[in-house]
Structures
1.
Amino acid sequence: MNRFFLPRVSLVLSTTVLVSLPALAAGTLSEADAKKDAEKTLTQRNLRSYLTFIASDELEGRDTPSNGLNTAARYISTFLDRWGFVPKGDNGTFYQTIRVRSTYIDNDKSAATVAGKTLTAGQDFLPQGGSEKNSAVATPAPLVFVGHGWFVKGKLDAYAGVDVRGKIVVVAPLPRFLPFGVTQDDIPRDKRGTDWMPPEEYAKAQGAVGVIRLPSEDAATWAKTAAGTRPSRRVQLSPVYPNAAEDTDVPIIGVSPEVATALLAGEKTDLATAIADARAKTETGAFALAPDKTATLAVGIRTETVSTQNVVAAWEGSDDKLKNEYVALGAHYDHVGLSTNANAPDKIYNGADDDGSGTVGLLSMAETLASHPDKRPKRSLLFVWHCGEEKGLWGSEYFTRSPTVPLASIKAQLNCDMIGRSKPEGDTQERNKTLSSPDTIYVIGARMISPTLGDIVDKVNHDYTRLNYDTRYDDPKDPNRFYYRSDHYNYAKRGIPIAFFFDGVHVDYHRPSDEVSKIDFPKYERVVRTVFVTAVAVANAPSLSVPAAKATP
């Protein structure tokens, strides 16, 4: 079932009155012109006005997908249309539609037998995954214990020495995402599925027909978790990319401590040892369970397809040749939505800094361009408000896979993700340790692909606002992995030079307390003005060539 809903909204527009004008023969917008326009239009007042709406409770945290996110998209596109921007979404609109598949699991339609015992959903087991095409193992299948179940090329293979084709694998839990001895450097995002696979993916790749997860909790804790699990719930949300293969995930269940203990009785390991070994050993040794121990699985699965969108617009350049090239400006306008905790005093994650600040920064840059339409940068500017960043960089992945302008025409991408916060003087909170000071913004990636871009980024700042550009995280090997954690990465991995502007992680990151009241508006204004003038300078640069020997990190 397909759904796409953009609600009717009443928009309070900026006090700046701009009229959409027909295209005129435009002169070139210089850096000096851009600075003057920014001083007049790109102001704290306008930033606060836009951000107060984008980060308001009425938008309910802008989850992907949600009516709140759709309202934000309508809000942004209303201004773009009013200001005379060219729609660069689908079919002459500002929206690039992305289909999203929601997978729902129904306890009441799920069943399992393990080692001869018929299990009760919600009491003995919880259905946890699968697909409509592959939701059941009807014929009793042999069982194979595979420890933590991970594969990391050249480092570990949990299935070494066993054949799991046509069998159900039994997987031990981990207290954190990665197995012992594996770091984030071992699992680059773009190598998933080839150089590394988590347990359920590896099971499917090796021909297993199902997965049984052992519990990490004691019996009382597991029972409490099971009791709090709704009979029908959404367990997976994933974008449907063009030409993507049909979802064929194998059925997955999690069993209670009582069932797990009985399952491993008389085997080479017991439940306590299986859990301990998964936490403390790189590989724990896979083995087939006794031949009389088999299982059948049936997971009640329902899928539903909904739609969400990127918002895409262009401001045409002034140069007859260069206007067919683009400098992209990006931010993600989604956040993480609503709390599922019924007792939470504040259930709305407003996302003022993350990434309301980038969203509104781009909108204010667009307004500044429209305030002086007779002068334009030589290259065109492409504005992309990405959705689904919080779900795993969905919007930028989709856009760079299916661009609405030729990807080769995008000569650089400037990403604004969290640009409005500062560390208070004397603050010693651990969660604020990476938060930048009022005069500082982190710049990541500006020289990784194109030294020319890095030179422009630095020169504009030196000649204009003189922010402290801190590059301490400008390293793909930095343990925080900030380079990989926002939308610019999907452009960079396709060879497009990028610069990422970022204020650091703070105590309110992904919390309901990320509110407009905590934004440092004087700093925010400086950062947005600087990025705006940088975009104009990049768009006017004679050449943005990338050295042939320069590898994409």
Note: The chain has 13 helices and 23 strands.
2.
Amino acid sequence: MHDKPRLKFWQIWNMNFGFLGIQFSFGLEQSNMSAIYKYLGADESTLPMLWLAGPVTGLIVQPIIGAMSDGTWSPRFGRRKPYFLVGALMASIGLIAMPFSSSIWMAAGLLWLLDAANNITMEPYRAFVADKLPKEQHSVGFLLQSSFTGLGITLANFTPAILVSLGVLAITDRFENGIPVYTYWAFFIGAGAALTSVLFSVFTTREYEPTAEELEVLKQQKKSVPLFKRIYIDIVEAFRTMPLTMKQLIPVKFFTWFAMFCYWQYITSALSLSLFHTTEQSSEGFSKAQLLTGSLNGTYNIICFMIAFALIPLARKIGARWVHFIALSLGGTGLLMIPYLNNTTVMFYMFNPFGAPVAITTIYLYALGLGMAWASIMAIPYQMLAGSIPKEKTGVYMGIFNMFIVIPMMIEIFFMQFIGYDWLGQNPVNVIRMAGLFLILGAIFTLFIKGKNIVTQ
């Protein structure tokens, strides 16, 4: 077993830089897929089911890739890096092809490809931190990933608006399938970002070679057990011997990711109703709400990027559990505040290099809390988990852990599609209120987590 040396900050930066491109890809999905479906003729009532690709591919792909990468070693490419390369290449192809979709089902099929590719790359990235860093640097590694998550999604959110603001492209320019030209270019830029950032990490970071004993175990496993049978055995065994910390994180993850999926699906309609008193898609108010959603999502991801570094010393001082409790509580409180905020009371003006100064109104206050929550969501649970699982099974456990993200998403899709939206009075503001309460419930369940590795890592 390797005695892992402490790495310098820029070495940790280099190994995690590929996360920027992965999250750029995810950000393009979050901001544009519903619009692409609508350009191709989809009805809003069908949108939740068209989003099933994300949770389903995460549920299937992540634990399989985790188990496969645990059992992989190539003297030339390493253990996790082959999956980074394959996933990044597939994601780039999916991003380039997506704007050329000629039908709803072509776009849906490409989304399945894109989500599978992103999961192939992302799951081993979580294990990569545990592979490379000593326990006392896990928090730095995961919080850097959280920071790159915020930056990547922010760039994805703002790229179309920047292209239009600079006068590079006109907002009215569209191709024959109805998709705007700026969407094409945003996806092309995303494809380049996904591939180049992952290649940068691959070529600047060396993986530790397994010891002779570890290599012998890998060889014997491959000889004695077929690949997919070994994967199945690893996953079943991992569930059977699941660490206590991982079990205690299940309700935290459930309420967190149920809430976030509600937010992404309904925030535009909630803002339209709360601020402009309409949910009519053809109205000017709905268009303003749609633009405001992009700005607010970009803002909370900027907050995520900025606050991620501050969480490192805070987690060391008061413990990861309390950091996560505070962050989720602030995020939930922010969502509960939305009906009481507005876009007319200006707090200050922010410099805009692309045009007139931007008025920052009180509605941006919720993005501050949500950004803090998002920074913690993307890092702290992994930090809690990393110290409680066996090193040689990091990949499969991280894959199973990520199943606790996608299962709540799938439950949310079916619940909101068939029960929840009617139960909440078909009022999107009530959906956001429920999301806020769920984040606070996730925060409360965080306090019940016990374990020697979660206090000060």
Note: Strands lie at 346-350, 358-361.
3.
Amino acid sequence: FMDRAVRMAERDKNYPCIVMWSMGNESGYGPNFAAISAWLHDFDPTRPVHYEGAQGVDGNPDPKTVDVISRFYTRVKQEYLNPGIAEGEDKERAENARWERLLEIAERTNDDRPVMTSEYAHSMGNALGNFKEYWDEIYSNPRMLGGFIWDWVDQGIYKTLPDGRTMVAYGGDFGDKPNLKAFCFNGLLMSDRETTPKYWEVKKVYAPVELKVENGELRVTNRNHHIDLSLYRCLWTLSVDGKEKERGEITLPEIAPGESGTIGLPAFRSLKPLSDYQLKVSILLKSDALWAKAGHEVAWEQFCLQKGDLASADLINKGALQVKEDDNSLLISGRSFSVQWEKKVNGSMTSLIYKDKEMLAHPDDFPVQPVTQVFRAPTDNDKSFGNWLAKDWKLHGMDHPQINLESFRHEERADGAVIVRIQTSNLYKEGKVVTTSVYTVFSDGTIDLKTTFLPQGVLPEIPRLGIAFCLAPAYDTFTWYGRGPQDNYPDRKTSAMMGLWKGSVAEQYVHYPRPQDSGNKEEVHYLTLTDKQNKGIRVDAVENAFSASALHYTVQDIYEETHDCDLKPRAEVILSMDAAVLGLGNSSCGPGVLKKYAIEKKEHTLHLRISSKQ
């Protein structure tokens, strides 16, 4: 041990980028480490000494042989999901309780050493939930140093398959036993150095300049330790309903490291009622640096100046509708549209036609439209390192529910609109989710769809509550007003701006080497799926924004594959819209989902307005 430490220090003593010496990793603790620490302090008194393993010896939680108190995979001081533990009981599941709360260590008064987490935010697959909460706490206490994300890049290995395709292989793909399967995929980047949505979340939270609006002024905090803000420019853009309307530049004062200052914001013309106004403030490099070109954005913040109205809940029908019904089906038609349901099996919508174009597709493995979605293809966080979520979902049959049609009826409103009420149940091992869908059909083809989801009985933590349609292949351009452009989730959306975004459906899925849920977009106000002529279907939020995704995969497509190379996109478009989505958490190695990002087992409502996009 001592020889290794001496060689390390002699080899690296003249590298200015080395700010402290580390005595090792996960190697226990004993007199050998105490001796190494003494030698390092004598050899180089300018650098502190670190070792996460220096803890819990002879009743001393943090021996004085190290200059920094360090922990793995700490928790924030908020409540985590603890299913199976009665509400109010002063205990937690072992998967959470094993991890200490970092801020509590920093708040102890019997020590004044700096505190850090030498591994945290385990970035395996679709991960990095509640990352901002970590840094809210880190910035709140001067003893907190920060932490080291595990880790930078996936460590997959390219493997050529017999058919000539290349795959990113992981444990077991070479016949190796024992192995840790996909535990080599923990990076912010893919193995080929492609970025993931996790990367952008880290960049946003780690930004060296913090921006806040206080009392009508912009408060700027310089998070840098060694430079003032004279190296940066400050630009602003004003967007109305997702479209840029104005832009300008603000003179940035030379705020010293660690200090704050306030500057005035531009005066904007009177805001149009009903429209959504978003102000983005960006901090950019003035000149080229060794690591980036002039104009590179190092920080940004978005401020909502006025929240736009969602679609009105009150619509009046202004034309006639034709209703045809027999024992098996219900057909409603109006000007240039028709919609049809079957009534006997599962209450499925069998056709939706706008301008002679069928919107829906009906593959054999998607028999119900819209289908109630309660399950998601488990993320690595849902199923790794002792997490109970994916195991509980499978145990309760969440992955293969039995769908029962409970009731189907329709009635005509006084203004001629037709109301269709359908109730179904997704049945699980010991519980169910009852879905009540109320369609109000108008003569111009607009369909108001109000869906309520009521969990009943014994259910595990719920991954989502929503519906999904299977749309025809032609409608493969996805446009949405909501958070983007990268996918985002309730606990990982700090880096996703509100805006009007557009891309192909194929671009929405994130190809993690082990298939799992991805592609979600939060706070969606409206979306369209259109063909090459920019025609198709539009869905607006009524009352509350919703979560959405548009993919070339069903949940089962993703769930049933273990390698991305075997995940075959289908031609159809799976449009998912959710009233609630479970957060991601960090529990592939570390604490799980914060309770505030869980789905309460109560009634949830998804209110949408479906119409033709022409």
Note: The radius of gyration is 27 Å.
4.
Amino acid sequence: MTTKESRVEGIVMVWIEIFPPFSHENTTQGDADESNFSSSCIQLPCLQIPKTHITNFCRKPYKWIRFITGAVAGAAGMLKWKDGEEVDYNAELTPGDTDIYFFIDSAERARAFSVDPDLANAYVTSGATSTRRAEFEDELRERDGATCVVTRMPAELCEASHLISHNKGDEYIDVLTRNCGRDPDNADHIDDIDDCRNGLYLYMSLHRQRGSRDIGFLVTPNLAMSSNDMNPEWDADQPQWVFHDFRGTLDPSPEFSIPAYGMTHPHNQPIRIPEGRNDWPPRVLFDAVYASVIMKYFSHKEFVDFVNAHWKDRYNQREVTATCSNGGKAKRDAKRREKKATKIREK
């Protein structure tokens, strides 16, 4: 997307107004207003992004910045300059360092749930059994057509990859999807870490890079972008899941510029979506994974420290949401048993 001649030098520093969790707990969307948050509002540097890289991820740099900041904050918002004027989201980047401010309105403040900086951490215990893991792999292979959804590599070169790490456990994904999902019918809620909606069938190398937060999947349209902001030939409202290779794009090492690497890491290309999208992962999981990659590469230490101090424990506390029901998991288990029985009858 970006040529050497068109690169713009400088850093974009994104500032954000963020609130300690007690504001989230004591305020509902119905009674949220500025007075509820003014006493606890803290302005922090959130992201620092080299301008040379931004248009490698989107043709509309300010729209992309707006989306990733909202994904990290767990809330929609708008970008403004220091004088309060809203940013022109179709504008080009200009040379030099730039400060931008991300503002969240009252209703969104009430639902904000910041991303966990350690979302990909694999050192969290889980009670999941090997049987559930095996069923997870079987379901992904069947749903995704026994080929990698990114590269179309065959099954013998692929692995079942959790979007939210398996070791995070059921409670973690329950809290995440309950608090960050936006589906009005709560259809994006997941309470089983081995639910096939928490996974993709990926080429082995991509599976490892997903775990190390080096790749992400940008879903459009979203609260800040249309699909044709990524590619002018795409319909604005046509859903796309775009593969982004952060390591290969940001690392200048020669190994990432050879054609063979590009074949297995098709940056800025849409991934293959199973027909019908049955049991396909909800947007909330793709956004969480994408936000965690953004945090790895572009987060400011002050923001990370604040989130770790005030928000991180909320991912391990069911009481921050409504009482969890096991109904969803029971339905998933019943569906698995039914599918298994059907396969046995067909043999």
Note: The longest strand covers residues 42-50.
